[in-house]
Structure formats: C-alpha cells, structure tokens
Amino acid sequence: MLDAFLVPANTVITAKGDSTPLDISEAANRVFLLTLSVTSIVEQEAIEVSLFTSSDGTTWETKPVASLPQKFYPGEYPLLVDLSEAAGVKFVRGHWEVSRWGRGSTTPKFEIGLRLREVPKEALREAEAEARTRR
User: Fold this and answer.
1) Phi, psi at residue 53, to the nearest 5°?
2) Is the backbone of residue 65 left (phi > 0), alpha (psi -120 to 50) or beta?
3) Does residue 28 register a pLDDT over 80?
4) 50 CB contacts (<8 Å, ≥6 apart)?
5) Residue pLDDT, tens place only, 84-117
6) What is the dihedral of CA 13, 79, 20, 72, to 10 degrees?
7) Cβ contact 82:53 at 8 Å
8) Separation CA 27–CA 45 (nearest Å)
9) More exposed terminus of the chain, fewer Cβ within 10 Å: N or C?
10) What CATH number corresponds to the domain at position 21?
11) Which SS3 state, helix, strand or coil, does residue 30 take?
C-alpha cells in the first residue's frame, strides 16, 4: 500500500516549486488521497497545490490531473485523485504556487506537508455501497 510524502511534514515554503517525483507504478489501486497539511501561515497569503503526472518521471503533462483551490488558513485539505483511467502514468509530483499581498514583506511563508496515500479497493467499495443507499 503506497503511503508517501511528496513534501515532508513541516516543510517551509517561500516560493513556488515542485516536489520530488514519486513512482506510483507499484500501486495496487490507482485511486489516491492527496492531503495538504498547512501547519503555519501568515495573514494575507495563499497557497494553491496541484498534482502532475508523467510516464517517465522527466516529461510532465502540461495540465494538472488534480488541484486544490487556494488555501488561506491552517488545516488539512484532502482531495481524492482517481488515476484508474490513466494507464501510462507511473510518476506524480506536487506543484505549488504561493502569493502574498498587503503591507510588510511580500515574501510568502508557509509550513506544509503533502501526503499521497493509496485508497484500498475495499474502502472504495464500501463508500460506493453507502452512497447508493443514500440516494
């Protein structure tokens, strides 16, 4: 079961950037939970995180496969990413854009972690069954 940090917990971010590529080719299931953890942030700044895919780990798709909207506050922000239709994808990497406005320093400063976990097929089946009963 794949469970890895694209960005280690409590990493300080001050500019846009990319994580190290992560090989997902051995994942048994192609559905993942991407979780952005923002542990420190100052007022008047925002961070936006996207997930990009690649078949070889060097050439990346131009459009993200998934994106979290801008975040302005500390917290944990999960996003379910389904790559089951993307058969050729073997690598993923996180990308973040940051901005700061207002008075004072214009350099953003965040403390974040970005985790990718494989979702077990059993958990997906249970969620689908529960969703059907709620209709």
Assistant:
1) -120, 160
2) alpha
3) yes
4) 64, 66, 67, 68, 94, 95, 96, 97
5) 888 899 999 999 999 999 887 888 999 999 999 9
6) -10
7) no
8) 35
9) C
10) 2.60.120.1110
11) coil
Please give the pLDDT value at position 120.
87
How many domains does the chain divide into? Answer: 1
Q: For residue 81, give every residue at least 6 positions away whose Cβ sits within 8 Å of its Cβ, in sequence order, or none.
A: 31, 32, 33, 34, 51, 65, 66, 116
DSSP-derived 3-state class of residue 91: strand
Enter the tokens of residue 57.
């780990």
Residue type, 25: S
Q: Minimum mean pLDDT among 34-38, 74-78, 112-116, 121-125: which range?
A: 121-125
Q: 44: which 2 tokens? A: 């008047």
Residues 6+ apart with CB under 8 A from 26: 2
Q: Which domain holds residue 107?
A: 3-133
pLDDT, mean of residues 49-54: 97
- Looking at residue 87, its amino acid is A
